[in-house]
């Protein structure tokens, strides 16, 4: 299985329901609501869905879905 990119993991964190099937359903729903100018996001969603489809529920359970961002300190 291909590894997920940082962008895919961050997207998955936003829509994670705790199950692979729930996450996939959430991503599929969002993909249907995208405007044509959001093609880059649509590609990211499709890439993540392809990888999620190829993995098992057990493999999904081993993922650590924590957003990768750095908090700025004033």
Automatic annotation (TrEMBL):
Name of the protein in its database record: Putative tranposon-transfer assisting protein
Lineage per the UniProt record: Bacteria, Bacillati, Bacillota, Clostridia, Eubacteriales
InterPro entries assigned to the protein according to its UniProt record, in alphabetical order: TTRAP, TTRAP_sf
Species whose genome carries this gene: Papillibacter cinnamivorans DSM 12816
Taxonomic superkingdom: Bacteria
């Amino acid at each position: 299985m291909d590894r997920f990119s940082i962008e895919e993991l961050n997207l998955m964190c936003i829509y994670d329901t705790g199950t692979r099937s729930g996450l996939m359903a959430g991503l599929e729903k969002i993909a249907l609501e995208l405007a044509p100018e959001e093609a880059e996001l649509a590609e990211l969603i499709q890439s993540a869905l392809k990888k999620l489809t190829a993995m098992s529920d057990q493999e999904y359970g081993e993922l650590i879905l924590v957003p990768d961002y750095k908090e700025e300190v004033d």
